[in-house]
Amino acid sequence: MRRLLLATLLAAFGAAHAALPEPVARLAAANGIPEDAIGALVLRGDQALVSDMPDQPFAPASTMKVVTTIVGLEELGPVFKGRTELRSNGEIVNGVLHGDLVLRGGADGDFTVDAFTHMLEKLRSQGIRRIDGNLVLDRTLWQPSRLDVGVPPFDESPEAYYNVIPDALWLNMNMLTLDIASDARSVRVSLLPEMDKVSVKSELVLTDGECARWEDGWKVPEYVRNGSRLTIVLKGTYPRNCAKTNVVNVLDRHDFTERFFRATWVRLGGKFSGSVLEAEAPVNAVRLLAEHTSRSLPEIIRDTNKPSDNGLARTIFLSLGSLQADPKLGSRPLDLAAPAAATPGGGDIAPPASTLARSELVVRNWLRKQGIDDTGLVLENGSGLSRIERIRPVQMAGLLRAAQKSLWAPEFIASLPIAGVDGTMKRRLKESTAAQRARVKTGTLRDVVAIAGYVPDADGQPCIVVAMVNHERAGNGIGRSIVDALIDWTAQQH
User: Fold this and answer.
1) Which of 368, 450, 464, 483 has the maximal Cβ count within 10 Å?
2) Cis omega before residue 144 (within 30°)?
3) Cβ(419)–Cβ(425) below 8 Å
4) Are 261 and 253 in contact (CB under 8 A)?
């Protein structure tokens, strides 16, 4: 009955017409953005205060993370954790591990180089000084195991963190830290973490520009392989007498993991002469030597929504198609032998082959259970960093309403940026009535600005606010001013 009522209410919201508020409409008109380029819905209880193009699919940018994170909490549970394991099929005899060492990825978004170092230190504490076998990197929890291979760059900054595509064995998010310092005549560059046979070379041309604008002359670094050695070559220009730190995704992730392992194992006093292979863990790799678990899902979701972290959002989304909650361990592989999900027509369908497709099925099934029609929804990676993802404002509003009724509503709502306080809303609406009260997820792409969240009105009653501006003039702060005006207007209503 609740599902039917919710579906009826959402249909009513979609049919309702409450024009854009005058200050919002005035801003849009003044900047040449037609109202049909704006999808907006403001709900106070069962009343639609604003309804503009609510049934039209819009590009949501990072507000799509709202979908991924609430469905993640609902389906995986608040105790869900990713897990990385070191396993082996060999015995330890006189300090020698006779067999392969397997590093198995388990959607651990917190698997840093420090975490891996501690795992290797645990091997040494067990008396292992030499590994007589290979290191097997198991990324096969997700299929395909390397989603980044063959994918064209999303934009002109493929080395930037926001563009990194995760895998199930995502060491340090594949990020290298470059400390770059110049004087009047030369540039010095250091690289962290330490890598075996990896160096960095500067071909930066010094200029008299401002240090604060150093990124203006930055170009994507080159990645050169010469035999067993790898060299990262910095290109572009750089100001004189300037010191900055840049974090980049440049190395292939196999190289990253192998080169860090070799350097760290030697530094810890270990010996290894084998190869590093990409493969599924052997079925007889039953000896658990060390493990690392991520923070619990509510903590991960907070670090996903507040700063709008694409990599963590994609990790949660892929986990929906590969992992399920386990009260004891935090996570375990999805049981693909379980009964297949039912289609709307009543038949059964087999689980899709790719993890992304399975994740999409989980999201759509959850929406249908809430009575939310998924027509028009387009999912690509669950982060909003996509040119094809689409959602209707009425769907986003329905999802936010369902989130209010969730057992995990406090965890979800606490993950949203607070207007004028933190996250991507830290510098917005500081002088508004909504400051310190509204909790709103933001989204920005070229030609797209969006918001989705909760805004208390002047009487303290929470309102659901969704707005998406899809127009070529949405950039340069124009789209942001429109959606912020809608938040501010909502906060002033009685």
Assistant:
1) 450
2) yes
3) yes
4) no
Instruction: Supply the pLDDT for residue 314.
Output: 98
Query: Which amino acid is located at 255 in the chain?
Result: D
Strand 198-202 and strand 229-234: the pairing is parallel
CA gap 377, 364 in Å, rounded:
9
| In contact, 308 and 66? CB cutoff 8 Å | no
Give the residue among 116, 115, 81, 82 at the shortest CA–CA distance from 101: 116
Report yes or no: 136 and 258 within 8 Å, Cβ to Cβ: no
| Residue tagged 């919002």 (tokens) | 24
Strand spans (E) along 99-197: 101-104, 130-132, 135-138, 176-182, 187-192
Helical axes 253-267 vs 113-125, angle rounded to 10°: 40
Instruction: Write the CA distances from 483 to 20, 405, 478, 489, 494, integer angstroms.
Output: 11, 25, 9, 10, 20
DSSP state for residue 216 in the 8-state scheme: G
Angle CA(41)–CA(44)–CA(46) in degrees, nearest 5? 95
- As a whole number of angstroms, the distance between CA 33 and CA 58 comes to 15
User: At residue 394, what are phi and psi to the nearest 5 degrees?
Assistant: -65, -30
Considering the entire predicted model, what is its pTM?
0.92
Whether 346 has a pLDDT exceeding 60, the answer reads no
For 53, which DSSP code?
S
| pLDDT for residue 335 | 41
Give the helix, strand, coil percentages of the chain, each rounded to 5: 30, 25, 45
> In angstroms, what CA-CA distances link 204 with 145, 175, 180, 383, 423?
35, 21, 10, 34, 33
In 3D space, the residue among 313, 297, 336, 284 whose CA is nearest the CA of residue 90 turns out to be 284
- In the structure, what pLDDT confidence band is assigned to residue 315 with cuts at 50, 70 and 90? very high
Q: Are 379 and 46 in contact (CB under 8 A)?
A: no
Angstrom distance (rounded) from CA 115 to CA 31: 50
Mean pLDDT, residues 347-360: 75
The residues that bridge with 454 in the sheet, in sequence order, are 439, 464
